[in-house]
């Protein structure tokens, strides 16, 4: 870390401790490192905005040293402890936030490791560098007391859905390749990811008129299907105009729980791996198993699932069922349900663009491909399932926006107090 010695760091920490305990200048008034935290039911997501522009823009020497110390730890490691991971391939460079140019880093760890995370933050003395972290998700409430008592740090709660939408819109505005869909999703030879531009006025496989295309990037309205432990469906009509319209308890938690029970899986990643090598047709009862062919009168192809897990009702069938086939059936059941819920919500709101996000899609391309197939089936080929590269990080990114707003508000309050004090002196 060029230009900063160990003595500089120790002096910096001592100075912060002194100022933090001062009744004259509370540390919460200093500019803070910009973090966003989304503490979900299964996974916690942390984003860090690292300024890369002229370091002379730092308001204080403390901010400069603080930034470099955090940068050294976070950006020179790809793993933290036993379970923390930095997704280096997702990092976004040259992003402007609050008139600063920098890089957004993306880090994740299991939520059940939150106590370990709190201990790590305390040991690294990061608590001396930031008095407030903006957080969302259920864990922002569940772990608030521990974080505030152990770290003397405030967890500023941000609305979960508001953070999600803000995060999507921020990243979509700076990453032209954020959105994509699958062509021929279940054809292993022809399947390919295709970039989709938000500026196109519609998202339908039958739409060829792009006269609505603009240069503004994100277009309204659109449906967001957030797949985490459960599923939430939002209709977004504008930057500040959105609402939750539907949801389902059959999401990532259901899939993982079912695989733990049926396949003895110890992790989400193991469940996905098993599913990728299985065949649900050995487990699910198809239309052709009932009718001997397609049910043309109602438009059901012969390979349509008629009854999930319908073939394992006998002891013999259960004995012959493989872990891989069971996991694949669990995944097909989950994605078919999500696709149906999403399309019903989109049809109800008369919206074409349907975007799927959430950590259920992380390291899980088979789920995205199955969702693509489900959307094609339920919409009779009129709509495509859209996906975003940063999947489950949008809530944490949305917290950055909230934190910047709070920082600016505090700055204005300090300036107002300073002006009032000067006027009183005069």
Automatic annotation (TrEMBL):
Keywords of the record: ATP-binding, Coenzyme A biosynthesis, Cytoplasm, Kinase, Nucleotide-binding, Transferase
Any one of the GO CC terms: nucleus
Family: Belongs to the type II pantothenate kinase family.
Name this polypeptide is given: pantothenate kinase
Biological pathway: Cofactor biosynthesis; coenzyme A biosynthesis; CoA from (R)-pantothenate: step 1/5
Catalysed reaction, written as an equation: (R)-pantothenate + ATP = (R)-4'-phosphopantothenate + ADP + H(+)
Gene Ontology terms describing biological process: coenzyme A biosynthetic process
């Amino acid at each position: 870390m060029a230009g900063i010695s160990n003595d500089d760091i120790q002096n910096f920490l001592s100075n912060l401790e002194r100022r933090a305990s001062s009744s004259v200048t509370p540390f919460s008034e200093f500019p803070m490192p910009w973090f966003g935290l989304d503490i979900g039911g299964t996974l916690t997501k942390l984003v860090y905005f690292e300024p890369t522009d002229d370091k002379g823009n730092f308001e204080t020497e403390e901010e400069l040293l603080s930034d470099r110390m955090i940068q050294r730890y976070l950006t020179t490691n790809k793993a933290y402890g036993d379970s923390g991971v930095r997704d280096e391939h997702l990092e976004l460079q040259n992003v402007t936030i609050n008139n600063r140019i920098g890089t957004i880093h993306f880090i994740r760890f299991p939520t059940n490791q939150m106590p370990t995370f709190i201990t790590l933050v305390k040991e690294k003395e990061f608590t001396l560098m930031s008095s407030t972290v903006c957080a969302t998700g259920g864990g922002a409430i569940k772990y608030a007391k521990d974080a505030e008592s152990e770290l003397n740090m405030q967890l500023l709660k941000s609305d979960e859905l508001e953070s999600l939408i803000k995060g999507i819109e921020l990243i979509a505005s700076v990453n032209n390749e954020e959105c994509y869909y699958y062509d021929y999703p279940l054809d292993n030879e022809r399947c390919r990811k295709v970039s989709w531009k938000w500026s196109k006025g519609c998202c339908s496989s039958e739409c060829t008129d792009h006269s609505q295309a603009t240069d503004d990037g994100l277009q309204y309205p659109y449906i967001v299907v957030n797949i985490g432990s459960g599923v939430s469906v939002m209709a977004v009509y504008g930057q500040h105009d959105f609402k939750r319209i539907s949801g389902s308890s059959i999401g990532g938690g259901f899939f993982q729980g079912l695989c733990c029970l049926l396949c003895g899986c110890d992790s989400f990643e193991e469940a996905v791996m098993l599913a990728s090598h299985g065949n649900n047709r050995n487990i699910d009862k198809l239309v052709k198993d009932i009718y001997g062919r397609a049910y043309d009168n109602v438009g059901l192809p012969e390979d349509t699932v008629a009854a999930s897990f319908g073939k394992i009702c006998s002891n013999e069938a259960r004995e012959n069922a493989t872990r891989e086939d069971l996991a694949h059936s669990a995944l097909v059941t989950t994605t078919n349900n999500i696709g149906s819920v999403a399309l019903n919500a989109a049809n109800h709101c008369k919206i074409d663009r349907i975007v799927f996000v959430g950590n259920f899609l992380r390291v899980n391309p088979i789920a995205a491909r199955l969702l693509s197939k489900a959307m094609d089936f339920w919409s009779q080929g009129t709509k495509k399932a859209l996906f975003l590269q940063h999947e489950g990080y949008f809530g944490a990114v949305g917290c950055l926006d909230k934190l910047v707003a709070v920082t600016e508000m505090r700055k204005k309050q300090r300036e107002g107090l300073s002006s009032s004090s000067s006027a009183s002196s005069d």
